[in-house]
Amino acid sequence: MGVTPHQIRVEVGELALTGFRVDPERVSAAFESELTRLIRAHGVPLATEGALTVDALSGLPPLPAGLSARRLGQELARAVHEGLSGYGEVAR
Question: Domain coordinates of the chain in residue numbers?
């Protein structure tokens, strides 16, 4: 019996933007907006059994360095959501 959560909280401690020449505030805003959209649309598949704490996501795809701040934030959010969907390696 699946339970639909009333609230999903995602805390991201750090986004490391090594090699990117973009405004981190704009990246962060785009990241938050896109991750919120993805979670509302698709949920967090790894959390279907209940609360989930993830220390790190790895094995996610590299991103091209020439992206705009908005696009970089969106792509980072998609990569994180893929990790929360069971793709990549999850450290709990």
Answer: 24-91
Give the list of residues 6+ apart from residue 16 with CB closer than 8 angstroms, or none. Answer: none
Query: What tokens appear for 75 in the block?
Result: 């792509």
Q: Helices (H) and strands (E) in the chain — how many of each? A: 2, 2
49-91 pLDDT tens trace: 666 666 666 666 777 878 899 999 998 898 888 877 776 554 4
**What is the C-alpha separation between 81 and 92, in angstroms, rounded?**
16
| pTM score of the predicted model | 0.75
- Residue whose pair of structure tokens reads 């790894």 in the numeric block: 46
Helix, strand, coil shares of the chain, percent, nearest 5, are: 40, 5, 50
- Residue partners of 41: CB distance under 8 A and separation at least 6: none
